[in-house]
């Protein structure tokens, strides 16, 4: 057997960190050598996450997020599950120490530091790295990811919106000015923080929109849609919180370009994703359901055409912690290190 | 004290029937004299719905849905919670016997029998009554409802979409060709039927779109929007099922008419609903949450304006069994019989 | 119409306070004149609880919990939904000012100040009042409650355990040394506090015991069981948290006294509760379900006999915020003020 | 790499069948060669379970449950996820054709055909095999399982009750006449059948006992407890349904044997399970939580001692579809075929 790749998770005590632990502890080509958490430093993973007890590696103690200490473990790659602003700083330090970095924060997703400041409210902490960072959608940019030192793993909402739309925009099948996306996210998307509005009794039996009209994720969504469309695109995006632990369902609609046969939608999706390991096409009339993708790296995509309005409807479903965060980051990691794309990710 | 109005519920064993029972058993101006169910005939209400035991009236036995027998109870009004097609027939028979009828099915919601046949797949069973039936949105048509013999109480999705949009269309504030509505409904909206796809384990931890692109409720939605707009309107409507017992959250978007000040949106809503007993305006930036309206007759409405796209976003929340079905029917009943609009409906 | 009784709720911003607001805002014989919350003082009820908007009385502003200010509103009765220790102090002050007090905390439930200190970890703050306080189980002590100035409204777990057991112990039908009670509570029982362990994602899809082997509620449970049995009783009590908003299901078992016909169980329950407005007997083999009692003042009780082990099994279900807290307090209030026991409580 | 063992799943369309598919499709030493379902015969697994699409093996078509056809696939082992009564017949046929059989039904769990008839209501369909069948609790009978042709994999409730109790009874630490077990099960335990009582709206926000006082699983529970105690044991067992997809939490109590130091409880558990791959001891005061074991083969066990009553309290948590069904069957399979006990089961 080949040697395992030594990995670190920086910021491993939240929900995304827990998902990365879940995946990397049992990834056949990975040896987890470091997991950091200021709050839990010194405790074994298993004490903080009883779910991991008696799994190999679960007695690894959390450490402080010190770049030198992380590098000293021999880690070759680091996954960052940190708040924006904080991630950029440690990414810089780890890159200097020779690690590959897969950053799950928003810090390197935007190529334009001004847009970052507009949406995140502070100057970009490491603008020099923006050119180098690769926006980590493996289905769109596998080649660049394979060569990357620094991958900016996409946000959960963006992944669910971008993958259905990009092939259609690239083929000019829809009118970019008419895009409306509605997403429903599980509560883990809001993070693991002591906040009354996230209590069980406040979220259970509750459905609500939030963050309108200018959710932060719009910045990366529109950046990537603009690239695909070859023109500047702005969209309407309405996120909702629904009472499930994880999962995002997204319904997107846009006008079919005049003169286009609706069947071209299915063909463009098939051409883009027919062979993709983690995109499952449900065909015309298929509606994606989050229950089929939770705890996997799959994204399911269905579509319909409404002849009455001339609009295309796309439904997609992914796990916000999986394809929307942790497992998509592992998919990029696999590409960077030349592993099979599906390594450690073929579960149901 | 004034005499109570004798009421019947026809088709009282499903979820809408149960909601009507819940409301009418304790309505201070109502005496429930009949509740029908072919399946449960002969059993007391309390045996079928243990939740009602030891409430006054709960020992009333279910009876067969026979129009003569219903009329013989002295019922002055009948609420029909029956499947479409079935409702029209019994409505006809009860009207002939002098009862007022509040029909919660789709049978009398459409003024055009051809549209009915297009959306419901069979010829309309009582087209002669279509002219007379009043589409029962009390906030829009209180006057007509007060005079009605036959009220077609609106569907759950339509109520949540129409109330926010009608004032805006009437004032030409938005472009009707750009309307996109996404709704998330609790599972009770699918009815109480033995169907594997509605099992707890199939719906819990699941979010999914369904019924696209041409859900039946589009027919009444577009009929009423067209009246408000003064022109023929078609919209894109995407319903979703989310794991809550009841409640509908709807997010609707449309382009603001060129040259209109966004503040006009708030003013139009305020002007239409500021004094409405059961519409609560959340103002600019407010997002409606189903948890605030379940088991009530309230609908909450918030709005936002996205300057980047020129679109208005409206969020609304109601109980699909309440304002979307049972309690809205009681609101119409109150109007028909000259009771305070809020009689029996002021609970939290 | 008779004049309404002026009421205050002290500590109205938590889940129990919210339930009291829900009940008292629409209680036909109550005028809510004061609701206190240090945190929310100055804001109208409707701003803190959007669910109450447009209900009569919902614009009342929260006030500070100052006894003089409360008395100045003309309040004749005060409901205290405060932490133990805090409640006793304000109860004393309000009693001095002539109000009747219904205390929903644990402060006056125990007649023995030493037991209080043992279970609550601090000396009793107002031992002089212990003799006077009436343990407010209306089905057991309606007479004393009618005469009381100070009612100690029982805890949620105790109510669900005591009501089934007391008639059996009074008739010596079961062996008190063999009692084992298991309860499953909705998450609202843990209160409305910003605590990671109460987040949606931590409670959803989770079932767990906690607080063993000596939950605080054991003190009042055993006090009341001992009175019923005429001897000192200790029991095993295992509480669990389950992912529902509200509701407690309790399953209790004990050995049938030798020589007793099992049918005597049903007879004793029937004799005790056949005419009780809020106890519903499900008979032999009936299993209580929380879904039938949520948001009501009902407690449902079923029983079974296991000939193989000689044990009786009692199942009960109530709403932890209703019969286990808010509505039971209102039931006592009704008795104190000579209202019908069911006033304001007959809903489903 | 060694050759994979060819496996069949008979009755693969229910919840237990789906769990077996989930495990065996990705088990590194298994090749799934057959999955049967009368209802779905001819369809690929992926069409019935969209969750499995694009996993290796997911295009295998369901076949009829014909023993010859199953044998013709070369299957060396068959997992039976069939109703009792049906399982025995096909087990017999498959054993005759040389397959190892791991039966997840109740058909071979009881060594006494009379007890089977008493609890299951029909004569045992294959009594000749009862002597040979091994009750498949790997932590208790690994040796016999390794040699078995026919393993009767235990029920979900029994596993959660037996594993905590057996070591204590073997060491005479508790009085077997005083055992009371309360279990709370996720809804998948009721199976995937179109039944109104299992609808989302009937189970969500509901907690209830059922099946008292003589649930079928008592037969195997008491058989195994009697073996451990060396005397005939009957217990009180109260199962409950709680609104989670999967997971069982069990709380068991019994009197500590007079004169025994409570610390002996912890020691006996540690001695029995300290080295067990899939039992995790939470120690004194630890309370097991289903959320830590769902979708794993782990069972977590905590304990407490109540000096006031002299009772021991044991809490355990497992996945009813995992350690309570599918993954425990795979654990036995691993033993039978000489694989590492943890093969295919080390996930979180």
TrEMBL record, chains A, B, C, D:
InterPro entries: AGPR, AGPR_AS, AGPR_dimerisation_dom, AGPR_type-1, NAD(P)-bd_dom_sf, Semialdehyde_DH_NAD-bd. Pathway: Amino-acid biosynthesis; L-arginine biosynthesis; N(2)-acetyl-L-ornithine from L-glutamate: step 3/4. Signal peptide: none annotated. Residues 6-148 form the Semialdehyde dehydrogenase NAD-binding domain. It is found in: Cytoplasm. Keywords: Amino-acid biosynthesis, Arginine biosynthesis, Cytoplasm, NADP, Oxidoreductase. CDD domains: AGPR_1_C, AGPR_1_N. It catalyses: N-acetyl-L-glutamate 5-semialdehyde + phosphate + NADP(+) = N-acetyl-L-glutamyl 5-phosphate + NADPH + H(+). NCBIfam families: argC. Catalyzes the NADPH-dependent reduction of N-acetyl-5-glutamyl phosphate to yield N-acetyl-L-glutamate 5-semialdehyde. Belongs to the NAGSA dehydrogenase family. Type 1 subfamily. This is N-acetyl-gamma-glutamyl-phosphate reductase. It comes from Luteolibacter arcticus.
């Amino acid at each position: 057997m080949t040697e395992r790749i030594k990995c670190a998770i920086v910021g491993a005590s939240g929900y995304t960190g827990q998902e990365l632990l879940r995946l990397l502890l049992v990834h056949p080509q990975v040896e987890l050598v470091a997991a950091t958490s200021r709050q839990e430093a010194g405790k074994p993973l298993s004490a903080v996450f009883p779910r991991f007890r008696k799994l190999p590696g679960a007695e690894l103690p959390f450490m402080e997020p010190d770049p030198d200490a992380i590098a000293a473990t021999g880690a070759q790659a680091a996954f960052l599950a940190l708040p924006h602003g904080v991630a950029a700083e440690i990414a810089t330090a780890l890159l200097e120490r020779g690690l590959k970095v897969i950053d799950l924060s928003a810090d390197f997703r935007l190529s334009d530091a001004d847009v970052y400041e507009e949406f995140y409210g502070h100057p970009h902490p490491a603008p020099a790295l923006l050119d180098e960072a690769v926006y980590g959608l493996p289905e769109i940019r596998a080649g660049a990811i394979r060569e990357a030192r620094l991958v900016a793993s996409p946000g959960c909402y963006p992944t669910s919106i971008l993958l259905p739309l990009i092939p259609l925009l690239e083929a000019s099948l829809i009118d970019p000015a008419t895009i409306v996306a509605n997403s429903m996210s599980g509560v883990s998307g809001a993070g693991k923080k002591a906040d009354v509005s996230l209590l069980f009794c406040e979220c259970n039996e509750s459905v609500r929109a939030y963050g309108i009209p200018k959710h932060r994720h719009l910045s990366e969504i529109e950046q990537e849609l603009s690239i695909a469309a070859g023109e500047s695109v702005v969209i309407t995006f309405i996120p909702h919180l629904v009472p499930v632990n994880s999962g995002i369902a997204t319904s997107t609609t846009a006008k079919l370009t005049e003169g286009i046969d609706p069947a071209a939608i299915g063909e463009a999706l098939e051409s883009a994703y027919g062979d993709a390991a983690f995109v499952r096409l449900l065909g015309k009339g298929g509606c994606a359901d989050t229950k089929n993708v939770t705890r996997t790296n799959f994204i399911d995509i269905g579509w319909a055409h409404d002849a009455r309005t001339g609009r295309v409807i796309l439904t997609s479903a992914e796990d916000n912690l999986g394809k929307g965060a942790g497992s998509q980051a592992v998919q990029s990691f696999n590409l960077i290190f030349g592993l099979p794309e599906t390594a450690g990710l073929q579960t149901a």
